[in-house]
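Workshop exercise sheet. Pairs work together: one partner reads the sequence aloud, the other fills in the structure field after running the prediction. Swap roles for the next sheet.
Pair: D.N. / O.F.
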Amino acid sequence: MGKHIARGVVAGVVGGLVASWAMNVFAETEGQKISDALETPADKQELAAMSDGEDATMRAADKIVETVTGGRHLTYEQREIGGPIVHYAMGAVTGGVYGGLAEYSMSVRAGFGMVFGAFIFSSADMFGVPAFGLAKWPNAYPLSSWANPLGAHLVYGVTTELVRRVVRPLL
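Structure field:
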């Protein structure tokens, strides 16, 4: 199987989509157990006070529509639909980039995708989301609150690599 960037990108997109789903499942099940074990009652109270019922993907969907339409905003119900669209689009795009790079660099695949997942967590969640005004900076949250998102991104990275390895030879 020779190197082929387009096939790598396609395999990465498929991997990124499946991994986005796996990430959600982890965050809602095992990740929640981790959060429950690590977060103190004070942490939970602080996080509840900071929450407005929306996550960064919902805010991103609204910002995208606002930018494209010149000021129109989504209703809460529309943001509930738009949030998952943003989540899966981000997963597909980053998976595609990963798949393309993985064709040419073994170091990209380090840790069976865990390094990739950690990179996405640190660059997107810890820097990108706050930089775009979609959430507060990491130091505004209790340290314990980052365990679930970090774990979910590690699951994303491993799943992206696993699916990429299965799909790539089929292309």
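Discussion prompt: The chain has one domain: 5-170. What would you look at next?
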